[in-house]
Amino acid sequence: MILDNLLILSILLVFLTAIVGTFARRRRKDRVLRDIDDFDITLKRKGKASVWGQAKVFSNGIEFLFKQPYKNRRNNSATSFLLYKQEYQEVEGLFRFHDDLSEDKQKIRRRSVDAVINKRWYLVLGRLISNFLNTFRDAINESMGLLLTRVRGQSLDSSDAHMKQLSTTATSLLGEAYDPILEHHIGDSVILEQKLDDGKVEYVGTLHEYSESWISLYDCRLEEDGKQREVDVYLPRTITWLRNAGIKKNAAE
User: Which of 182, 188, 184, 179 is nearest to 250 (CA)?
Assistant: First the structure.
């Protein structure tokens, strides 16, 4: 009777974790791109015209909502532009120009900047947990797999792929990409180097966040139409590297 209950519990755990894992993966947004959600953003792509609109971030892409309908070259009216995850390799950068933002959006942005630079305790704790899960992901997965196998009342050798998938899913829902060098310089002044088809570009600003696919800087300055503009930049990591570090914002580091 007890073994039957454990087997039923095991099956329920696998079933529920599969549902939760699938749901979470399909709704989970990149932690860098979450920062541009609902903000006016300029999208620059390789060899293509720039796109400007209010960004709506999804797990599988970004929609840019236009302020007013736009007539494309085929004279069809469009109210938004969709960039799918599979097209991210075309992106040179996403840019949040400060003078494009309303007063309310400026306040929201400033709170985010302050939280990063001042290293708020809840952000620090969240990152420590996430980094721990990533650093010891394999060990945690094996331990969870062993525990769940014992719950099923079977030997480790006889455990199936569902148990392994269950433990992997559980840690992947909490963990994020971890880079020791980038983590060390969060909130610091840095220089990012980007390699484009026509040469290299440097961005100077405060390192805000990174993920497996993206890296972002606050408080950069770019020349646009002959004038300097303040901007936050979001760059694909496939063509962008942290090249130089500046003065640390937190002298205690």
Answer: 188
